Amino acid sequence: MRLKELDVPFVAVVTDIDLRGLDDEAFAELHASWLEHPLLIFPGQHLDRAEQDMFARRFGDLEFEAVAMSNIRPDGTVESDPDDDLVKSLRGNEGWHHDSTFMPVQSKGAVLSAEIVPNEGGDTGWADMRAAYDALDDETRELVADKAAAHSMTYSQRRAGYLPKKVVQDDGIRLYGYPEGDVPLRPLVKVHPETGRPNLIVGRHAHDVVGMSPEESERLLDHLNEAATAPENVHFHRWAPGDVVLWDNRRLVHRVTPYDMTQPRQLWHTRIAGDPVTEAALNHTPPGAAVT
């Protein structure tokens, strides 16, 4: 296994490895590398969905198995109507975000692989929220130290202009990301459970910082998000079919860049579940925890 750091220290390209058959020793080495480089890129792996899920399970239980992040309908047609709910969902992902902060338990990480990519655009970018925290001035660090914000897909999609027409479908199933119950509250600063280092938890889903007016909250969160995603703290990956990436959702935010949606794009996303003990929202009781 060979690792090569790229333009920012949080990302490394891994070669001379087959993700289908890692023994325990190789996986331990890879896991240690992942904690140091929370974005790992594996070119040309060409995993099928079962193989991708099997690899992701090495890192923990799954929030969900591989699903298509795609503008290709089941009948093979390409959906590009800007008023279509599928297109709205995909376009929403152009904003920087952590996955599943809008759920009671935030995800641990994800594995993403490319099957079909457009001629241009559709790259995925990541930004390091640990470096973002480290770069805060003393006044801002003191301000955010004890603050918490709500996280909601409804908020982020509405603000971006991509709120779906239907959250509850005709069959009674709610769209993923629009859960019932209290909107999760998450600290703006969280200590990573495996590295012990603090990082910001913000992104497009965060809103209404507790103790602030809506206007103050929006200004603060916009400032934090803009500073965190400055060019020197970001890496964008240009996909090729067969590429696989693994990232730590506890530390990184990510986004997709715009592309011509009349062209097909299909990636497969497997989401690794967060540990309820460390990733539960502040206002949700972790499963199995004692209620006091």
What features would you describe in this structure?
There is one protein chain. With 292 residues, this protein is an alpha+beta fold. The protein has a single domain, classed as Double-stranded beta-helix (4-Layer Sandwich), CATH 3.60.130.10. The chain contains 8 helices and 15 strands. The model has no long low-confidence stretch (mean pLDDT 95).
Structural class: alpha+beta
> How many distinct folded domains?
1
Please work out how many helical segments DSSP would assign.
8
Percent helix range: 10-25%
End-to-end span in angstroms? Answer: 48 Å
CATH structural class: Alpha Beta
Rg of Cα set: 19 Å
What key attributes describe this structure?
alpha+beta, Double-stranded beta-helix
In short:
This protein has 292 residues and is of the alpha+beta class. It has helices at 24-36, 49-57, 85-92, 129-134, 138-144, 153-160, 214-228, 276-279, and strands spanning 2-5, 11-15, 39-42, 62-70, 109-116, 124-128, 148-151, 185-187, 189-191, 198-200, 206-209, 234-237, 244-248, 252-256, 266-272.
Write the layout of secondary structure elements.
Layout: E1 2-5, E2 11-15, H1 24-36, E3 39-42, H2 49-57, E4 62-70, H3 85-92, E5 109-116, E6 124-128, H4 129-134, H5 138-144, E7 148-151, H6 153-160, E8 185-187, E9 189-191, E10 198-200, E11 206-209, H7 214-228, E12 234-237, E13 244-248, E14 252-256, E15 266-272, H8 276-279
Parallel strand pairs: 2-3
Antiparallel strand pairs: 1-2, 3-13, 4-15, 5-13, 5-15, 6-12, 6-14, 7-8, 7-11, 9-10
